Amino acid sequence: MADYLARAIGAGGNIRAFAVTTTDIVNEGRRRHDTWPTTTAALGRALTGTLLLSATLKDKNESVTLRIDGDGPIGGITCDGDEQGHVRGYVRNPHVDLDPNAHGKFDVAGAVGQGFVHVTRQLALEGLYTGTSEIISGEIAEDLAYYLTKSEQTPSAVALGVRVAPDGTVVAAGGYLIQLMPATSEEEREQLEINIQAMGAVSTAVEEGSSPEEILASILAGIDYKVLERREVVFQCRCSRERAVAVMATIDPDEVEQMIAEDQGAEMTCHFCNEVYRLSAEELQQARQEQH
Ligand SMILES: [Zn+2]
User: What are the chain's domains?
Assistant: First the structure.
C-alpha cells in the first residue's frame, strides 16, 4: 500500500490527531542518499516528523522546514514538506552507523548529538515563522514534541518509527502526532496516555499492516472522534534541470565562463534528493545570457 496520512479530530475539537505511513518514503530517502542503518532511522524519523508537521498547514502554498542541528556524527538533518504531502530531506553525513543503544535500538540520539531543533513555517498570510528549541533527547520524536509544546505552546505527543531489515532496506516506517487544545479534559488526557502505552512501537504497528486510520483508532480508543481527511504522501523534490540552469545564472559570469572553457559544462547535485544535473556548455552559455 502506498504511503498516506490520515487526519482526525476528537473530543469535540479538543484533540487533533494525525497518523502516517512512510515506508516507501524512507526507503526512497535511503536509496537516494545511500544512508547506513542508524542514519536511515534518523533521516526516516525526521522525514516522517516533517510530514506530520506539514499536515498542520492550512493553505496549499504553505510549507515547513525541520532542521535538527546537532553536534553528532550525522552533522545535521534538514527536511522540508508542503501542504500537498510532498517531503524531501538529507543528512550531512549519510555514512554513520553506530552500535545499538542499551535498549537494543538504533542509537539515533548518539548519531544526532546535542544542539537545537529549528522549525520554519512558510505561511500564506503570516510569512516566515521560525521557532527553536533545544534537542532534549536526540531521538527526534521527543524533540519534536518538546518543540511543539514549548515553542508553539501546543501540548503534543509524537511517535516516529523506522524498522530496518538486516540488508539495510526499510521494512516499516510511520508515526503519529496528537495535539491537545486547552479545553481537553483530564479524563481525555488520561485515556490518551493509556492508549499510547497500550499501542507500543509505531513501527511494529506499521510492520503488522496497520493503516493510518487503524493507528488513529488505537490512540483515540474510548474518545469520540472522526477521520476528516486522507492524503497520499511521497518523497518528492522541487529541483529540476531548469532550476539548476537558473542557479547557474546567479553565479559570477567569469566563473561560468571558466567552467565552459575548462570543463565544457558543470555538474550540480541537489542536496535534498542527491539528483545530479550535468549541464552542457550550451546550457551554461544560456545561463550566462539570462544574467542580463
Ligand atoms: Zn532535488
Answer: 4-235 (3.55.30.10), 241-289 (3.90.1280.10)
